[in-house]
Amino acid sequence: MHNMGEEYGIIVENINDLVSVVNLDLEFEYINEITHKNLIGYSSVELLGKKVSNFIHTDDRENFLSIFNNSIDIGIKFIEARIRHHDGHYLWIETNSKPFKDKHGKLKVIAISRVITERKNAEEKIKLKSRQWKTTFDALKEPIFILDLNQKIIQCNQATLKMFKKSSPDEIIGQSCYELVHCRSQPVDWCPVMRMIKTNRRESSFNQIDDKLVEVSADPIYDENNRLIGAVHLITDVTLKQLTEQKLKESEEKYHSLFDSFPHFIGIIDMKGILIDCNSAINKFISMHKKEDFIGLSFIQILSIIDKNKQN
Questions:
Q1: CATH number for 54
Q2: Cα separation, 123 vs 117, whole angstroms
Q3: What is the total count of domains within the chain?
Q4: Mean pLDDT of the chain
Q5: CA atoms 151, 156, 159, 163: torsion sign
């Protein structure tokens, strides 16, 4: 048994996790020195008899001590906190602790900790990217929501809440897009999402929502294996664009009406002297032709035709 105890001691001294025993005053009574020295730079002389809290980052100390003290009563508990390395920088550790009684019946706590700095840094990068994505997502003026293949909404931006007069994403997430947008229990016939699922490419349609004309589009989302898993659903208000195009069309029609009814010949030529448009007054000069017959001809060619027409 004595040899077995020595073997366990050798194992504990050489494992890659930090192993320590602390008393109820949270003072170190034992550490596996080799690992502590390798990972956080401290020897037994520097830790034994010292309080654990002296080495915990000030921002983590209160939470660490609270959870650690509770673990004495409830048993195993995981704690994450930053611990000061011997050279002054901090490392993230994850600690699993469990109370026990020593041979004298005194209550102690054994703690097994591992360094998780790389994992925490990776998690923070993911959180940062998530915050950046969410900020960008919410900054877009057009309503956008993410759908699964059952057309259930799993994410939406602030513009979506505004359009549908909701105060929280929770009022939208979980609904189907056709329930939210069209107040129907089934997809509409022209649904771009249904077409996108069939074609695996971007699809769009135009529809009226309240007093607005909108373009409703669906773009496919693929997983790492290039399998379709959902869609980005975008609603773009094109009312102003349509009004502008309509006014432009009306203006062009009015211009052409005035242009064509003017009693004198008006021709528009390009830099090469080619006629690209003219009014109907040209028929006064050449009654045998329509104005369309002269579009694309040079001005010299037109004058030649006029001369021939006069001779005839």
A1: 3.30.450.20
A2: 10
A3: 3
A4: 85
A5: positive
